Amino acid sequence: MLLAELHALFRRTRVLVLLGVLFAIPVLLTVVVYISGGPSAGNGPTFLDQVSHNGVFAALAGLTVTLPFFLPLTVAVVAGDTIAGEASLGTLRYLLARPAGRVRLLGVKAVTVAAFCLAAALVVAIGGLIAGAVFFPLGPVVSLSGTSLPLGDGIARTLLAAVVVGASLLGLGAIGVFVSTCTDVPVGAIATTVGLAVLAAVLDGVSQIQAVHPWLFTHQWFSFGDLLRSPVRWHSVERDLLLQAGYVAVFGTAAWARFTTRDVLA
């Protein structure tokens, strides 16, 4: 059942288009840097001023640029459509007619959303690495601590950063799945999920409510940058993953409570 859902998800034209756009963003960003020379040191998004010196940073700059909006948008589209999309098409009742049961169906849908979160972040990183290798030289990576890392180590840390970014989106994915169990209109579920992501990002920038910031699922999204320090600073990454696990637990439980009591024939 899980393999069938994963196969169906990654064969959808809409999902392939979303992944294609995510792949294109770091490529276009790299081309712009190649043509313009990029911003001066310390200006622009994090890592962007290093792209012209080392193509590996194109992947990290791509993750930085896509994380505030593009990645959350794609996750909201997929997560918001999990249950609401089936309900709007009238296929939900037939899925539940199988002996798999509601809990298993919900679990499979949640795992597909998690798989998409990781795939989306990796697509951005891979697009950046390919474009960086084409337009700029590759070599030892200068960490944020000023030390030099071997190229292989730098690429490995970049891919690990993409995995951390994907994991950082799991909280939003859990919210989207929960919202999707509450409506038969996928567009409404998607819009609500995107709206909550935007709201969390806005609140995270309001200094008057700093006490709330550590509880917002967006607060530690950029912790992946600490993987490019030497030695790696795991504290922020661990806090981010723990926060996302909390959101998954809360909204996963809410989705289970809602979906297992829902009247799909209404």
What does this entry look like structurally?
The chain is mainly α. It has one domain. It is 65% helix and 2% strand. The chain has helices at residues 2-9, 13-36, 57-66, 70-80, 84-89, 92-96, 102-135, 151-168, 170-180, 186-204, 234-260; strands at 141-142, 148-149. It has a two-stranded antiparallel ribbon with strand order 1-2. β1 (141-142) and β2 (148-149) form a beta hairpin. α2 (13-36) crosses α3 (57-66), α7 runs antiparallel to α8 (151-168) and α7 (102-135) packs antiparallel against α11 (234-260). The longest helix has 34 residues, at 102-135. The chain is globular. The mean pLDDT is 91.
Distance between the termini: 25 Å
Continuous helix count: 11
What characteristic shape results from the CA principal axes?
A: globular
Low-confidence sequence ranges: none
Number of strands: 2
- Widest beta sheet: strand line-up: 1-2
H/E topology pattern: HHHHHHHEEHHHH
Please identify the structural class as seen in this structure.
Answer: mainly alpha
**Strand-residue proportion:** under 5%
Q: Tell me about the biggest sheet?
A: 2 strands, antiparallel
Q: Name the quaternary structure.
A: single chain
Based on CA atoms alone, the radius of gyration comes out at: 20 Å
Mean of the pLDDT scores?
91
**How many domains would you count in the coordinates?**
1
Helix proportion of residues, in percent?
Answer: 55-70%
